[in-house]
Amino acid sequence: MPIILWCSMLTRWDEWYSNENLRKDQRILVAPPSRSAEMAAGEFLRRGKRRILDLACGVGRDTFHLEKRGLSVIGADAALNGARAAVKTRLVLEADSHFLVADARHLPFGNGWFEGIYCFGLLHEFTSQHKDEDLRDVISEASRVLSDQGILVLTVLAGDPQAGLPAVQLFTRPMFEHLLAGWHPLEMQQFDDIGCTSRADYSIWYGLFEK
Ligand SMILES: C[S@@+](CC[C@H](N)C(=O)[O-])C[C@H]1O[C@@H](n2cnc3c(N)ncnc32)[C@H](O)[C@@H]1O
User: Which of 21, 55, 162, 174 could bond to 119 as cystine, CB 3.0-4.6 Å?
Assistant: First the structure.
């Protein structure tokens, strides 16, 4: 059974994933998986990490790709409408992934539940005056729900930190590295990837870290 847990958050992403907008912009549901998800799948499999959390999974384009590659995946996102759309797609695809609504800063999972976490495009979402605390909470929760030697694959929009505000907080490499201080970095690179808005011109930081 797919899981949806409801909580009272309503985000700008709920509007983006609303039925009305999904009808208007049909690209959202058919966006191809990201290159990052394919790279992450290879790393998880190579390292024997099979129980994976797709953190901020949106409508699940990468969740379903990770599952297709042989991983057991739970997708979590703060937007209820995103999770609803993902569950509908799950039925169409006859997929096994589960979805739930959750805030990445307070995850409803026990310690060490996952062997791997994949998180595409969440970190740049935090732009409020509390953003440093928000980011610290996300990384601390990721560490808590990850098993020992667990693998975290993170991507974030790269660029001039002032350029994307107030919508998004672009990251420089030192910002990315500073946030993950204390983790063991295995790989870090910058490349173009297809964002959840189907834009092909986003440059991202892709990082692979071991707990
Ligand atoms: C850029 S989209 C990426 C979606 C998905 N990873 C993809 O690539 O298709 C950012 C996602 O972060 C989610 N999000 C924003 N704040 C969140 C939070 N505090 N906790 C969990 N998800 C959050 C949004 O609902 C949205 O789905």
Answer: 55
